[in-house]
Design a protein that fits this description.
Layout: H1 3-11, H2 14-19, E1 22-25, H3 35-40, E2 46-48, H4 53-66, E3 74-77, H5 90-94, H6 99-115, E4 120-121, H7 145-160, E5 181-185, H8 204-211, H9 213-220, E6 225-228, E7 232-233, E8 236-237, H10 242-252, E9 258-260, H11 268-272, H12 278-288, E10 293-294, H13 298-308, H14 314-330, H15 350-363, E11 365-369, E12 383-387, H16 413-421, E13 426-430, H17 444-452, E14 456-462, H18 483-491, E15 497-502, H19 510-515, E16 518-521, H20 529-537, E17 617-625, E18 628-629, E19 634-643, E20 649-659, E21 670-679, E22 684-692, E23 698-699, E24 705-706, E25 710-717, E26 725-730
Parallel strand pairs: 1-2, 1-10, 2-3, 3-4, 5-6, 6-9, 12-13, 12-14, 14-15, 15-16, 18-26
Antiparallel strand pairs: 7-8, 11-16, 17-19, 19-22, 20-21, 20-25, 23-24, 25-26
This protein binds beta-D-glucopyranose.
Length: 734
């Protein structure tokens, strides 16, 4: 243990130690009754949700100058996709496939949050988003562990800053660094039925091979803390899951990261039925390895008695306190506890808005573009109909978790269109539906009229912010309210129709897609939605977002994700039959006996990694060298990519592998690399990936992480169905 931590622990009473393990709500602008006194007495060592600098500084003053040991406070906040400047929701950020940009988004958020006195962010969220019914899919980086790990690590770097700061060797000590918190450890994304807080049952193989790697990647990037999930994992809620919090985290990974509960999740161990009362709940959580309790007070109320009765060893308390103190030390809070009230960047800082605009631009995914209808030619349009509840709503474009976002800085699509083309085009706006949920069709008449008079119709539809995020799950993930009917009514006019969807999850878009000419899926793009989307619609920039998650045709196909197992009966085009094509009184009991739905087939609506461009890219000449590698070796995979379109564009090149035979069955494809690159029309480049045999490893039947000898396929292309393939062998080292 670090000498400074050792010295502090040596000076602390048991009550002061327990005080470091509590995390209390601040008063949002004033020090609430009792909190100041608790801080002075050393009964509270951390607060959350205080973003008024003067109040944070007053709380720090009480801690540093008036408490016996002068230990500063952590002040946590959910800084999820921006602070004041809102970036696309994490699922949208994931669609950029751009770790540098994600790092910039986290750095920007950290600068703003740190200036408000926040020193700890409850992000990145690293749960797997494989069920679009789950409202929190909006907060995920999608369905793939490799992509989530890469973007999670980028977020950690962005929050915690590369700047060495005042104390050499302590990256976190830069004044605008904030501590990251990788959450929710672990398995939350597997909540049954996509219903929030629900039970999760995840076999150990799948946990180790799919759910845990993103957390390991975040810790390897230096994440200082982890939040335990609310959910029950295989019968033991994560909050009290010793296997997760101690066996994996401490014993296997050797991590000294701070572990924090989720909101009130320690007493909820009673509701789960794991503990009979709050004392038992505190016992279960503390002995499992949970260091810090958020919001509730079972530790404060019961740990002393549990230690005095000998049920919990004081060493366990010391270890938990050491983990809290280590974060405070790494943040440089002992030297520098106060926030400069003048540090907050000017509202609507142009650099921050610029980064948010780039992120929103790169995150939008073009899903359909018949004709092509897009990009629109500004010089050939004179009348534009702009229709829909999300065309001009500065709040709803921001998405979930935007406590500190300022909708007054939002640039909406309508506002941007008017500013840019108001002089040269007649722009007619009809909201048509009050909210995305509205069912009344009273506004349809005006919408149809506007469409009739327009050269092109732009429809801004989707889900308002409240329909995704925590506890906001949906059993039906189609466009809510009367939006499908609105599309139908407007499309019937016969003018070119372009739909822009803003949403917090994949939606079942089949009915809408067939009715429209083009569809751009923008997630919740954030503050700079307007400029980003108008740039894309009018071709200033080519769309380059790629889906970080599979879009199902129907809810009944869920779970559907690209990295599935093959099964013993994989579907083939010959065996997949549609229900309408079955002969009356069909005598056969079998239609080929493969794995698919009679009414939805075997394929998703849009596959993982998919996204159209205004250019087109051709892939050729994949090569692997060497063709044979032994464990410990690296191989190179390369392919040529050519922009065969007629505009400059960026493309996300993806590399997938398949281990054909394993001692444990392996997914049909796994993402193992990606690169975003820009190409001029006609330009060709060779894209090169290095693959180490460790990148091919998985947990075998003995739960050993191994790279097994055998044949591997490798693909390079623009999405998860690419067919440009090569092969290589992993052989035993002779
Ligand atoms: C969420 C966490 C969040 C915490 C604090 C909980 O309800 O599950 O993700 O960090 O609240 O706001």
């Amino acid at each position: 243990m670090e000498p400074r931590i050792q010295a502090l622990l040596g000076a602390m009473t048991l009550d002061e130690k327990i005080g470091q393990l509590g995390l209390a709500m601040s008063g949002e602008g004033e020090v609430p009754d009792g909190l100041g006194e608790a801080v002075v007495q050393g009964r509270i060592g951390s607060v959350l949700n205080e973003v008024h600098v003067e109040t944070v500084n007053e709380l720090q003053r009480l801690a540093v100058e008036e408490s016996r040991l002068g230990i500063p406070l952590l002040n946590g906040r959910d800084v999820v996709h921006g602070f004041e400047t809102i970036f696309p929701i994490p699922l949208g950020l994931a669609a950029t496939w751009n770790p540098d940009l994600v790092e910039t988004s986290a750095r920007t958020a950290a600068v703003e949050a740190a200036a408000a006195g926040v020193n700890w962010s409850y992000a990145p969220m690293l749960d797997l988003g494989r069920d679009p019914r789950w409202g929190r899919i909006a907060e995920t980086f999608g369905e793939d562990p490799f992509l989530i790990g890469a973007l999670g690590a980028a977020t950690v770097r962005g929050f915690q800053s590369e700047d060495p700061g005042p104390s050499p060797g302590q990256a976190l000590a830069a004044p605008d660094a904030i501590a990251a918190c990788a959450k929710h450890f672990a398995g939350y994304g597997a909540s049954e039925g996509g219903r929030d807080y629900n039970t999760t049952n995840v076999p150990e193989h799948e946990l180790r091979n799919v759910h845990l790697p993103p957390f390991k990647a975040a810790l390897d990037a230096g994440a200082t803390s982890l939040m335990a999930s609310f959910s029950d994992l295989n019968g033991v809620p994560a909050t009290a899951n010793r296997w997760l919090l101690t066996t994996i985290l401490r014993d296997e990974w050797g991590s000294d990261a701070l572990t924090v509960s989720d909101w009130n999740s320690v007493p909820e161990l009673c509701t789960h039925g794991l503990a009979a009362d709050h004392s038992e709940a505190a016992y279960e959580a503390a002995t499992a390895g949970l260091d810090l309790e958020m919001a509730s007070t079972t530790y404060a109320d019961h740990l002393r008695a549990l230690v005095e009765s000998g049920r919990i060893a004081e060493e366990r308390i010391d270890a938990a306190v050491a983990n809290v103190l280590r974060v405070k030390l790494r943040l440089g809070l002992f030297e520098n506890p106060y926030t400069d009230p003048g540090a907050f960047p000017a509202p609507a800082n142009p650099d921050h808005l610029g980064a948010a605009r780039t992120a929103a631009t790169q995150s939008a995914v073009l899903l359909k573009n018949d004709g092509p209808t897009l990009p629109l030619a500004a010089d050939r349009l004179s009348r534009l109909a702009v229709i829909g509840p999300l065309a001009d709503d500065g709040y709803e474009q921001l998405g979930t978790w935007v406590f500190d976002g300022n909708p007054e800085h939002s640039r909406t699509p309508l506002g941007t269109l008017r500013a840019r083309f108001g002089e040269t085009m007649e722009i007619r706006y009809v909201r048509a539906l009050e909210t995305t949920r509205s069912r009344g069709r009273g506004g349809f008449g005006d919408a149809i009229e506007a469409a009739k008079q327009a050269d092109v119709v732009l429809l801004f539809l989707g889900e308002e912010s409240i329909l995704s995020g925590e506890a906001h799950c949906r059993a039906d993930i189609s466009l809510p309210g009367a939006q499908e009917a609105l599309v139908e009514a407007v499309a019937a006019v016969g003018k070119p129709v372009v739909v822009v969807v803003m949403a917090g999850r994949p939606l079942t878009l089949e009915p809408v897609l067939s009715a429209v000419d083009a569809l751009l899926f923008a997630w919740h793009p954030g503050t700079m939605a307007g400029p980003a989307l108008v740039d894309l619609l009018f071709g200033d920039v080519s769309p380059s977002g790629k889906l970080p998650v599979t879009f199902p045709r129907r809810v009944g196909q869920i779970p559907i994700y690209y990295g599935h197992k093959n099964t013993g009966r994989p579907p083939t085009p010959e065996t997949v039959t549609h229900i309408d094509n079955i002969e009356p009184r069909a005598v056969q009991t079998s239609l080929g006996n493969t794995s698919f739905y009679l009414d939805a087939g075997a394929t998703p609506l849009f596959r993982f990694g998919f996204g159209l461009s205004y250019a087109a890219f051709e892939y050729a000449n994949i090569e692997v060298s060497p063709h044979e590698v032994a464990p410990g070796d690296t191989l190179t995979v390369r392919a040529e990519v050519t922009n065969v379109g007629d505009c400059e564009a960026e493309e996300v090149v993806q590399l997938y592998v398949r281990d054909l035979v394993g001692s444990v069955t392996r997914p049909v494809r796994e993402l193992k690399g990606f690169q975003r690159l820009g190409l001029q029309p006609g330009e060709r480049t060779t894209v090169v990936f290095q693959l180490h045999t460790d990148d091919l490893a998985f947990y075998d039947r003995q739960m050993q992480c191994v790279t097994e000898p055998g044949t591997f396929h490798v693909w390079i292309g623009g999405d998860s169905a690419t067919e440009l393939r090569a092969a290589f062998e992993v052989v035993e080292r002779s």
